[in-house]
Design goal:
alpha+beta; 7-stranded mixed sheet; 10 helices
């Protein structure tokens, strides 16, 4: 009669060990893809949750809440958001952000000026010269040397995908051209918002002067 190389108790132990190893291998095969699946699920957050998770848009998230736009940007969309970072909001003149937060209508106008209908990727943005925003006014777009600018802001990170759109990070707050006329109830901009408008218009004038000076030099 053929003998087992192990005693009966040892053979049972060995067999059970093999079963456990097989189950462990099966579990690894089944759940080994979990990290990728988790990453994919994270990539499918909506625009608001994606911005919150990024950690550099706390001011934007606060502003969206104050403007009552959270539900809109958590909706089906799709939307393309040029999202100013906390550092971008910090560039605003003192008191400008507080003034906007205290005026939901103006705040909505500024924030929706950062949103374009549809999912527009970086490659598509680079091929545009303007894009009409949800606010109604267009933003100017230029691309040169691998850098994309939207009005006076530079896109510092592109194509952050969300389930209902895409985020492009910008380093400055975009200001609607109509901002000087969108003031308080009497139609006059508050001092802080007037300062924002002056900052924006001053940047436009400075760029115009930079273009004019070389032209004058060539004439001379």
């Amino acid at each position: 009669m053929k003998r087992f190389p192990f005693a009966p108790g040892q053979a049972a132990t060995l067999l059970w060990g093999r079963v456990l190893a097989a189950l462990t291998l099966a579990a690894l095969l089944v759940f080994g893809a979990a990290p990728a699946g988790t990453a994919n699920a994270q990539a499918q957050r909506d625009l608001v949750d994606t911005a919150v998770a990024a950690g550099q848009f706390t001011t934007l998230a606060r502003a969206l809440q104050a403007a009552g736009l959270v539900d809109t940007l958590k909706g089906p969309g799709p939307f393309t958001v040029f999202a100013p970072t906390d550092a971008a909001f910090a560039k605003l003149p003192p008191g400008a952000l507080d003034s906007l937060l205290a005026n939901p209508a103006q705040l909505r106008a500024v924030l929706t000026y950062h949103v374009v209908p549809g999912r527009v990727t970086a490659a598509q943005v680079a091929g545009l010269s303007t894009a009409t925003t949800v606010q109604g006014e267009p933003v100017r777009i230029s691309a040169a040397g691998g850098t994309v600018r939207v009005n006076n802001a530079t896109v510092t990170q592109a194509d952050i995908m969300a389930s209902n759109g895409v985020i492009h990070v910008v380093d400055s707050v975009l200001l609607p051209p109509s901002l000087p006329q969108t003031g308080a109830a009497d139609g006059v901009a508050t001092p802080a918002l007037a300062a924002v408008a002056a900052l924006f218009l001053g940047g436009v004038a400075l760029r115009a002067r930079r273009r004019t000076v070389p032209a004058l030099a060539r004439r001379g």
